[in-house]
Design brief:
The protein contains 10 helices and 38 strands. By secondary structure, the chain is mainly beta.
């Protein structure tokens, strides 16, 4: 595709018409995910680089001139529809952007705890093999059930008729086990959450079940099991015991692939919405009348939910009115598509998510609701997956019968503007691939901004059954590398290092956020310890206040929970502020250092950022030293005009800052935390 966009730029001066042209171009490029900086009508380096990148991505070359009457060609690339602002679809297949060097082994220490080796398709029989699907333990939820400031885990075994296991964390990083009674037995708790239902401060547990794959049990001679089971509620009795409650059901043994918890009717009690997976069956919330007493609501969710296959949902205050809102996935399953189904049209026009604004009551018939979202893939990508997957499809199946949809939804403030945005994981065929989409909450609309925040999802979007990742089960946005920016860890099922076999260099389940706000994948070589780990989650698994990782490893001897404890490192933030004054002259220079210090006060890593355009140069050459009580910095820094300032001080950590006067009116303030 060739897109002609030019800019009239004469002797560095822009007329008002020309400035408007640049502003329009900047606005549209930003919508498309190309960062031009502020929309100011000024043709600067960022605007030019954004144009060059846009042209390159579209198979052309930017010539350096932009004519006013040709801007519409660029604007046509962005389409706004009601409350959803679309952007041109990008495959990310050509991007090579990756995060800076991050030595995982240097930052984390591994500790393992063995767990039972239950055989899939049995009533708790011990497995005899180590094949990945012979035993399939799965981390359902993370929480602190005994209020000891150490994260605990809920473990379920996929399609295994046993009670789930609760693992309580200890200061060593290993786990103790709490066995639940037989009444808690479920074949598959697909999704769950620790949350305080009865306001006693102890997290209870709400689990949503699928349990629809009875074929695994039939292979082992267990027949007459229903497809589906009741959901489960565990009421925490002081952190060591649980009362088991079976919540009311709108449909007996319903298959609920997901669900959510929130205060639906603003009565101060936490309610439950189990999301009925099958289309044609209405989804009814479960209201909590008083502590631990539940009742089906009279009214279901909107008809659009009933009309679609539903995989996941999430709740949060999207419009800032203090009332919980809802985002629910919408899918047309492959078996509902008749021969006249237009796949290309569906991919282009189907909105994948329903947004429902809460109004504080249980009647959803009059709520404001609208659809947003779109698929990251097109028919060509589906065809690639279909052709690599034919041995799993019936001979009379067509491309129309390939499955795809939403795997997971998360509400999180991606761009730190105080509003919850929407992140959507999507899958193709047999729950494969882990591509995601980002929709920014711009108040007037939800703006598709995936390319801006995740410019490289190549490993996640491999559309070949032999090399594709499995689907996204959960998103965890937390700071992993200690730079005070929230990174992304994706919880997914096993991957068997298949992307590496294809030559993919990046790890698909850890994205580190850079200072520009982009989430970049981590090279496989930097996280080799994670390559055989599935179900990775985040928590504080030894109570030291740091974010650790935990996942499932299956190897010789059976499965184990493997915890990666954040080494006892601390990031020291050092701020530089220099005020320079002279006759007729005044300026301020600012910079920030991030110094990662180990428990023995050795410096593990250091990075230096200039906040003002002209910063404090030479800080990377300074000597930094720390002890339990003191900070010491020595060396020479360079200011504007090559003015050199000698720094040599030792101060107590608790003082927080020091001042250095080096001229009649010049001052250096160094602060730390």
């Amino acid at each position: 595709m060739y897109i002609c966009v030019a800019l009239l730029f004469v002797c560095g001066l822009l007329t008002q018409i020309q400035a408007n042209t640049v502003s329009n171009t900047q606005n549209t490029l930003n919508q498309l995910g190309y960062n031009t900086g502020s929309i100011d009508g000024a043709y600067g380096k960022k605007t030019r680089r954004a144009l060059e990148k846009f042209y390159k991505d579209n198979g052309s070359v930017y010539g350096g001139e932009l004519e006013y009457n040709e801007v519409t060609g660029l604007q046509d690339e962005s389409e706004s529809t009601g409350r959803y602002c679309r952007a041109r679809r990008f495959n990310n297949s050509g991007s090579s952007a990756q995060s800076k060097t991050f030595d995982f082994l240097k930052n984390f220490t591994a500790i393992s705890t063995n767990i039972p080796f239950f055989q899939r398709g049995t009533k708790g029989g011990l497995a005899t093999d180590t094949e990945i699907y012979d035993s399939d333990p799965y981390i359902v939820a993370v929480g602190d059930i005994n209020l000891d400031a150490i994260s605990d885990l809920m473990i379920d075994y996929v399609e295994t008729q046993t009670p789930p296991i609760i693992l309580t964390g200890t200061s060593s990083g290993k786990f103790d086990k709490i066995n639940l009674g037989e009444e808690a037995t479920r074949r598959h708790i697909r999704e769950g959450q620790f949350i305080d239902l009865n306001q006693d401060n102890y997290p209870d547990f709400v689990g949503f079940t699928t349990s629809d794959h009875v074929e695994y049990f039939e292979r082992n001679g267990i027949y007459n099991l229903p497809e589906g089971e009741p959901d489960i509620i565990l009421i925490n009795k002081g952190g060591q015991e649980f009362d088991i409650i079976t919540p009311p059901e709108a449909h007996q043994n319903d298959v609920n692939h997901g669900g959510l918890v929130s205060d639906i009717n603003a009565d101060g009690m936490v309610d439950i919405i189990p999301l009925t997976e099958a289309n044609g069956k209405a989804t009814y919330p479960i209201l909590q009348l008083r502590n631990n007493e539940f009742q089906l609501a009279e009214n279901p969710l909107p008809q659009l939910v009933t009309d679609h296959w539903v995989e996941d949902g999430e709740s949060g205050d999207l419009n800032g009115d203090g009332i919980v809102d809802y985002v629910i996935s919408l899918e047309i399953p492959s078996f509902e598509r008749d021969p006249s189904f237009n796949l290309a049209e569906h991919i282009e026009n189907h909105r994948t998510l329903l947004v429902i604004y809460g109004d504080g009551d249980q009647d959803f018939s009059n709520n404001i609701s609208f659809t947003i979202g779109e698929y990251w893939f097109d028919v060509e990508i589906l065809t690639e997956m279909f052709e690599s997957n034919t041995d799993n499809l019936k001979k009379d199946d067509s491309l129309n019968k390939i499955s795809f949809g939403t795997a997971n939804i998360e509400l999180v403030d991606v761009n730190n503007d105080g509003r919850l945005d929407i992140v959507e994981g999507q899958f193709i065929a047999d729950w494969s691939t882990s591509g995601l989409q980002v929709y920014l909450n711009d108040q007037d609309c939800f703006r598709h901004a995936t390319h801006r925040f995740f410019p490289n999802q190549r490993a996640n979007r491999i559309a070949n059954k032999n090399y594709a990742t499995k689907y996204i089960n959960n998103f965890y946005f937390e700071d992993i590398n200690g730079d005070e920016l929230d990174d992304l860890v994706i919880q997914s099922l096993p991957i068997w290092n298949r992307q590496i076999d294809l030559g993919e260099k990046n790890y698909p389940f850890l994205f580190l956020k850079d200072k520009n706000g982009a989430f970049l994948p981590t090279p496989n070589t930097n996280v080799s310890e994670l390559l055989d780990i599935s179900n990775i989650v985040i928590g504080d698994f030894n109570g030291d206040g740091k974010k650790d990782l935990a996942g499932i490893e299956i190897g010789p001897g059976g499965p184990r929970v493997k915890v990666f404890l954040k080494s006892k490192h601390e990031t020291k933030v050092i701020n530089w502020y220099i005020s320079l004054r002279d006759e007729g002259y005044k300026t301020v220079l600012e910079g920030k250092d991030l110094i990662v210090v180990a428990s023995d006060f050795q410096i593990i890593n250091a990075s230096h950022e200039d906040i003002t355009k002209e910063g404090v140069q030479g800080r990377e050459e300074l000597v930094y030293q720390f002890s339990e009580d003191f900070i010491y910095i020595k060396g020479i820094v360079t200011l504007v005009g090559n003015e050199r300032v000698y720094v040599d001080f030792k101060e107590r950590i608790e003082s927080g800052q020091t001042e250095i006067i080096f001229g009649p009116l010049d001052k250096l303030i160094i602060s730390w935390k």
